[in-house]
Amino acid sequence: MNTVVHKTLVVQLQAGGADRFPVLAHFTYDSADPFALTVVFTHDGRVLARWTLDREMVGDGLTRPVGVGDVRLRPESRGLWDELRVELLGDARPDGGRHHAVVFVWAAAVEAFLRETHAVVRPGEEQVRVDDFLAELMTEG
Hints:
The protein is of the alpha+beta class. Helix content is about 25%, strand content about 45%. The protein has helices at about 55-60, 105-120, 130-140, and strands at about 5-15, 20-30, 35-45, 45-55, 70-75, 80-90, 100-105. A 7-stranded antiparallel sheet has the order 4-3-2-1-7-6-5, with helices on both faces. The longest helix is centred in the last third of the chain and has 14 residues, at about 105-120. The chain is globular, with a radius of gyration of 16 Å. The chain starts with a strand and ends with a helix. The relative contact order is 0.17. The model has no long low-confidence stretch (mean pLDDT about 90).
């Protein structure tokens, strides 16, 4: 039986040199893919981006900088509260650069979401059904 955990949070998006502005982040964890979290960012009913993140990496990002590729996470303090800084590098732009956005999430909310996912599948007890995965690949071809 697959179990899904979902939480919607208001986060702060900073793109380019602009100031932060609030958007919704819809966090989803599905025990069918126990290592991953999906985050869909929306604003005014429009999907801005969808990212799949490593659950363990998100937890690690709450305490130390992690990531070297398209996703980089690190803790930041804003005086009264702690945040998780999520840097996302997207597709190439026509000028040769890459789309770039930074999202700031209240760390306590991320910790609460991760606790809910850990109640579904404890860290270290994740299982991947390789036979099911291979069967799915064979039917697609």
